[in-house]
Structures are given as structure tokens and as C-alpha cells.
Amino acid sequence: MTEVERRPTKRGRPISDTGTLTPATRSFRDSSHVGDSADPADPADPVSTPLSGTGRDRGFDFGFTPDRVYEDQSFRDSDLQGIILEGVRFLRCHFGGANLTEVQTLTCRFESCDFTGAELNASRHHRSAFLNCRFHMSNLFMSTWTDCKLTGSQWQECKVVGLKIAGGDLSYLTARHHDLRKVDFSETRLGDADFYGCRLDNATFRGSDLTRVILDKATLTGADFRGARMDGVNWLGMDLHGARLDLAQVVAWARAAGAEVEV
């Protein structure tokens, strides 16, 4: 499809057929190069997906065709509700205040993008990467992230009720003081993530990599850590009252407290 049938707006200004705002607020460069890596969120890596949607609900009707790269582009306050993006890459783009409700992404890549104030409620993301992105006061209500990478991203004062994580890599994620009760982080890479002061009651971390994760001042009642790798954590900074640990973790905790444990 070469014509854009439905265009999002930025306070009344349309996005052109090339995907740029009219008039453009920032310089824009398009490229066919998608990336060199072959990680789980690499757009070049084919994958079957449960994502659905056809016709004018698909992202290419907005000019977001697969393998396109959008660099230094502003989509501030744009209405992109319900579109599907597949294999698209965004570099240093601004989605502040954008309506991304029910958006679906498949093997997309967002690098150093800003989602301040964006609405991502009920959005679904499959094998997409959000690297070093900023989510400040963003609405992530009931959003689903399946095998996604959020490495180095920051959540600040976000709405995360009903958030669903299904595997993936959240290493170096900063998510301080969020309410993540009952979230299932099983089989997820969380190395060096910062959950300082979070509410993690009844959260599940079974089989996850929690190497050097920060859990100081977090509430962990009923949290399940069995089978998780927890090398380098600050055991004495964690309140593990009511948490579920396996034998190796109990031994590590006791030794950190100065006990001599023989197993």
C-alpha cells in the first residue's frame, strides 16, 4: 500500500506519507538498515506471532513499514491507538503524550526513545526491544511484554497495575518505588535491575537471573525466589519476611549475616 488512508495527528497536524510530522519538528532520516545484532528482539529474526490486525489497523497504513528506521523524529501527542508495528526501528524518537493504547509491536526496536506521559495501556509487545528508553508518568496499565528487552530503560511514576511480563531481558532496568505486586518475572533476566522500595509482595521470580539486583527497602512478603540466581545481591538490605527461598538461597542469606553454615 502506497497511500496513507488514516493518519495520526499532533494536535491537528497530520503525519505525512513518509511518517514525518508536517511541518517536521526535528531532523528525520530514513534507512533500510535495521541492525546488526541477532538477539531475541532483533527485527531481522523471523518469528510466528499471535499479534492480530489487518487493513487500516496495521502500522504500514501510517507509513510505518517493516525495516524502516525513524531517527530523531517527534510523535509527541500523536494518536496511534490500535496500530500494529512490525520490524520498525526508532532511534531517539519522542512519543511524549502519545496515545499508544492497544498498540501492538512485533520485533520492533526503540533506542533512547522518550515515552513521557504516553498512554500504553493494554498495549502488547512481542520480542521487541526498548533500550535505554524513558517512561516517565507513562500509563502501562494491563500492558503485556513477551520476550522483550528493556535493558537500561527507566520507569518513573508509571501506572503498572496489571502489567504482564513473559520472559525477556530487563537487565539494568530502573523501576524504583513501583507497585509490582503479583507480577510474574519467572525466567526473566533481571541482572543489575533496580527495584529499590518497590512493592513486590507475591511476585514470582522463579528461574530468573537476579544477579546484583537491588531489592533494598522493597516489600517481599510472599515473593517466590526459588530457583533464581541471586549472586551479588545485598541480602542484608532485603526484608525477606514471608518470602519463599530455596535451600541454596537460605544458606547464602545466613552466611551474609555471619552464620557458619555446613551443608
First-last Cα distance: 66 Å
Tell me the total number of β-strands: 14
Radius of gyration: 20 Å
Shape: elongated
The proportion of residues forming helix, as a percent range, comes to under 10%
Largest sheet entry: 5 strands, mixed
Task: Classify the secondary structure makeup into a structural class.
Answer: mainly beta
Please indicate the percent range of residues in DSSP E strands (runs of 2 or more): 15-25%
Q: Strand order of the main beta sheet, please? A: 3-4-6-8-10
Order of helices and strands: EEEEEEEEEEEEEEH
Average residue pLDDT: 82
Low-confidence stretches: 1-56
Count up the helices.
1
Question: Can you walk through the features of this model?
Answer:
The termini are far apart. With about 260 residues, the chain is mainly β. The protein is built from 1 helix and 14 strands. The strands form 4 sheets. It has a 5-stranded mixed beta sheet, with no helix packed on it. The chain has a 5-stranded parallel beta sheet with strand order 5-7-9-12-14, with no helix packed on it. A two-stranded antiparallel sheet has the order 1-2. The chain has one helix at about 245-255; strands at about 10, 15, 30, 70, 85, 90, 105, 110, 125, 130, 135, 145, 155, 165. Mean pLDDT is about 80; it is low at about 1-55. A hairpin with a 2-residue loop joins strand 1 (about 10) and strand 2.
